[in-house]
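Example S7 (structure tokens).
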């Protein structure tokens, strides 16, 4: 890392140029760029990404096999995410951060549970596990067409005792059903030293419940509407917590006391809505 990277103000936007775009699925793309700061973020940290002329989004930072490079994996959904999805090689975006805390990575038998682009922090977490760890990762998707990062997970864990399990809602690939059903089965069959999850909140809620009720250490990376990323606007509040400043990583003990987690969230106007 260069000396000027160490002195960079995380709250100032840095302009980067997209160097490569990979289509993961028909609705998911990964956009690669050069940046020494983002390439070294901790598992669970995020960046605020500015799409010129559209909006700014909180994004987990995807790993890259190339030194000094990082990426964002985006699913086209709303206006801002579709705008980022449509960014082409040679075009520019703005980034600031990194923000947030990081996963507390235990050693031993680990279970990772990811759904959709919630797999991004799971991939970065895999780069920090010990070679002696026994790692199971569950990948949840609606259908075969929406499965991604399966091969990457196997590559990252090639030196570990590991198991990569894919679950699709419609049964078109891997195990049929919800990934949380497999979580319940696994935590019933054996003890894990750590469980980590990121993805749709209902999935995370059930995963946290399954692990925490059995006394297993568990952490979840929460996603909320986020406008500033630094704890000023309050749009990302989850009960008494601010996802951007207090999280986005919270453990099972904390989440078990949060009445909003898994039940409600705030829309763009700040109005509380049920899931």
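Recovered sequence:
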């Amino acid at each position: 890392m260069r000396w000027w990277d160490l002195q960079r103000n995380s709250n100032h936007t840095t302009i980067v140029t997209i160097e490569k775009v990979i289509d993961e699925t028909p609705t998911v793309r990964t956009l690669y760029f050069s940046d020494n700061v983002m390439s070294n973020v901790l598992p669970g940290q995020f960046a605020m990404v500015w799409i010129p002329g559209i909006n700014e989004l909180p994004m987990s930072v995807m790993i890259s096999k190339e030194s000094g490079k990082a990426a964002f994996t985006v699913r086209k959904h709303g206006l801002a995410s579709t705008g980022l999805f449509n960014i082409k090689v040679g075009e520019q975006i703005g980034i600031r951060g990194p923000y947030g805390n990081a996963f507390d990575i235990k050693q031993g038998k680990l279970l990772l549970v990811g759904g959709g682009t919630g797999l991004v922090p799971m991939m970065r977490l895999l780069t920090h596990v010990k070679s002696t760890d026994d790692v199971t990762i569950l990948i949840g998707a609606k259908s075969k067409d929406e499965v991604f990062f399966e091969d990457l997970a196997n590559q990252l864990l090639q030196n570990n005792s590991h198991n990569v399990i894919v679950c699709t809602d419609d049964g078109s690939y891997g195990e049929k059903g919800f990934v949380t059903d497999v979580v319940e089965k696994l935590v019933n069959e054996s003890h894990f030293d750590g469980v980590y999850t990121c993805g749709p909140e209902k999935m995370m809620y059930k995963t946290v419940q399954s692990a925490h009720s059995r006394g297993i250490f568990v952490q979840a990376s929460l996603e909320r509407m986020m406008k500033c990323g630094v704890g000023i606007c309050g749009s990302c509040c989850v009960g008494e917590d601010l996802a951007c400043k207090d999280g986005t990583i919270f453990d099972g003990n904390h989440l078990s006391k949060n009445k909003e987690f898994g039940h409600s969230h705030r829309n763009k106007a700040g109005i509380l809505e049920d899931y």
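Notes on this example. The chain is about 20% helix and 35% strand.
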